[in-house]
Structure formats: C-alpha cells, structure tokens
Specification:
This protein has 156 residues and is α+β, with helices and mostly antiparallel strands. Helices cover 26% and strands 31% of the residues.
C-alpha cells in the first residue's frame, strides 16, 4: 500500500508539472543463507526497474548472533581485515568478468566493502555492488572457503 501511495503521488506531481511519468518496479527478496549454533546469515536482493536500459540490483546482508540476536559485523568474523581485503580482492581479480573489464587492483580495492559479505555452507560470499565498477550493472560475487580464511577468521 505504501508503494502504491508513493506511485500515485509521483504520478500526480508528474502530471501537475507537465513531466512524463515513468513507473518504477521495486522488489526485495530475502533468504537465510546460513545458520548454525553461532550465527544466522541473511542475504537480500533489492531490485529496481524504471525506464533505464537495465534494472538496478543491490545485494544486502546481515549477520546475527544465533544466541542473542545481536547484529554482527565484519569485525566479529575477521581478526585481520587487511589480509581479508587482500584475499578478497585477489579472488575478484581472478574472475573473468573483472579481468575482461580491465579493472585494476586499485579499482577493485576501492570497490571492496568489508561489510559486503554473507555466509553459506561453502564459505564466505563477498560482493561488489553493481554500478560500482563501470559497466557492471549487477553485483559481482566471489566465495572464499572457510579454510581459505581460517587463519584470519573468528567464526567456527
């Protein structure tokens, strides 16, 4: 109902101002990506589409302590953020979509965000948000196994 009311208000303003009206589609999906006795990891996709040539998709996630419900951040999972960043950037640079885009280490390092991760059975999934690197409209993901980060991880 809230979205409906916002769309009607946008339409009314567009009509009163003489501007064309462009409807927007918005959808959020969520799922529990990982759960054990210590942590619950939730990942979400937020999809927005209007008259642009391509939709915008944002990846979001939250981690929670399974016992207390307290929200957790990267500092609760990783003991050496610099090493984690280096390994994640290396993993991104090994991906074909990053290599073929000609992105440099500096560009990927700037696009990296420590909180952009969630857990799965396979390991930690990190992403670079779509439109952060020119020409990449969707989030780009890499998975680093728990073993690959065990020396800098405080999680199981």
């Amino acid at each position: 109902e809230e979205n409906y009311e916002m769309v009607v208000a946008d339409y009314d303003v567009s009509q009163a101002s003489g501007f064309p009206f462009t409807p927007t589609t918005e959808e959020m999906t969520s799922q529990v990506c990982y759960e054990d006795e210590a942590v619950i990891s939730i990942c979400r996709n937020w999809y927005l589409s209007s008259s642009a040539p391509y939709p915008t998709t944002f990846r979001l996630s939250e981690q929670f302590d399974a016992q207390t419900g307290e929200q957790l951040g990267s500092v609760d999972f990783f003991t050496d953020p610099d090493t984690v960043q280096e390994r994640v950037v290396d993993a991104f640079l090994a991906q074909e979509v990053i290599r073929s885009g000609g992105f440099t280490r500096d560009q990927v390092t700037l696009a990296y965000q420590a909180e952009h991760f969630y857990l799965t059975d396979e390991g930690y999934v990190f992403w670079i948000q779509g439109n952060t690197l020119t020409g990449l409209h969707e989030p780009v993901e890499v998975t680093l196994t728990y073993d690959a980060l065990k020396d800098v991880s405080s999680h199981g």
